[in-house]
C-alpha cells in the first residue's frame, strides 16, 4: 500500500519556472506608437520567437549578410506588395525567390491593378487561366530574355520595367530589378496557367528557371554565420527548391550554417517545417514556425524590422 504521508516536497522558490511576470504583455493603452505596441507584446512562446526573428534580420542587415525572402502567391493576393517593396528598397531583402504563380499575379497587378480570377466559375467553361495578355506578356518576356542569357526572374522583370504598365510601381519583379536585388522564379512545368498557351516554351522556361536556381544557390552560400531565410506562404515548391540549393552550395564546398530560418504561414505544413525550419539548421542555427494570416503578420514583421534598423 502507498503511504501518502511519505511524499517528498521542495520549495517552489528552488524550482525553475518557464513563465514569469517580466515576460507578460503590457495592458493596452490609447495613443501608443508602434514601437511601444511591439514592446508590449508578451515575450512568451511565439511572441518570443517573433522577437528572435526580428532581431536576426536586423543583425543580418547590419552585418550585410544574406536575407532571402521566399514568397508564395497568396502573399501577393493579400495585398502585401507595398510591404515587400519597402524591404527591397531598403536592401533588407537581398534575394527574392518566387514560384511561378507569384510572377503571374505580380504581372497582372502591374498590368491592370487587379488579379485573382474566379477559378471555379471559369473552370466550368474551360476559360480558367486563358487570359491572353497574361500568357503572351510573361511567355514572350521569358522566351526573349532567356535567349539573351537572363534567368526567368530578370527576363520578366526587365520586360515589365521597359513596358508602359500603369501600376508597375507595385510590382515586386520590377522593384527587385530597379533596386538591383536578385529575383528568382522557380517554375514547376504544368502548374501555372500560362503553360496552357501556345506562347509557352518549356525549354526556355526550364532554362530560365534553372539559371534562377543557380542564382538562389549563390545567395544561399552567403547565409553562413548570421544570414536569414524566410519562407512565406509556399507549402511545396520553394521549400523543396531551397533544400536542394542549400545542399548544392554545401556540396560545392561552401560553409553554410549558423543562420536563422523561419516560415510564416496560415497553417502548419510538413515541407516548410522540415525543409526550411528543421533540417537546414541541424548543423548550426535556429528555425522558427509562425502561424498567422499573412495580411496581419507580415506588416507587423516589416514594421518591427524597420523600427529597429
Notes on the structure:
The protein has a single domain (44-308), classed as 3-Layer(aba) Sandwich (Deoxyhypusine Synthase). Helix 12 links the parallel strand 5 (259-265) and strand 6 (285-291). It is α/β, with parallel strands linked by helices and 309 residues long. Helix 10 (202-220) crosses helix 11 (237-251). Helices cover 48% and strands 11% of the residues. A six-stranded parallel β-sheet has the order 3-2-1-4-5-6, sandwiched between helices. It is built from 13 helices and six strands. The mean pLDDT is 97.
Write out the strand line-up for the largest beta sheet, numbering strands in chain order.
3-2-1-4-5-6
How many helical stretches?
A: 13
Helix content: 40-55%
CATH-defined fold name: Deoxyhypusine Synthase
Q: Pairing-aware structural class of the strands and helices?
A: alpha/beta
Q: Sheet with the most strands? A: 6 strands, parallel
Q: Please tell me how large the radius of gyration is.
A: 22 Å
Please report the first level of CATH classification, the CATH class.
Answer: Alpha Beta
The residue ranges in which pLDDT falls below 50 over 5 or more consecutive positions are none
- Overall mean pLDDT stands at 97
The CATH architecture classification is: 3-Layer(aba) Sandwich
Strand content: 5-15%
Task: Count up the domains.
Answer: 1
The succession of helices and strands, N to C, reads HHEHHEHHHHHEHEHEHEH
C-alpha geometry: elongated
Number of strands: 6
CATH superfamily: Deoxyhypusine synthase
The CA-CA distance between the termini, in Å, is 65 Å
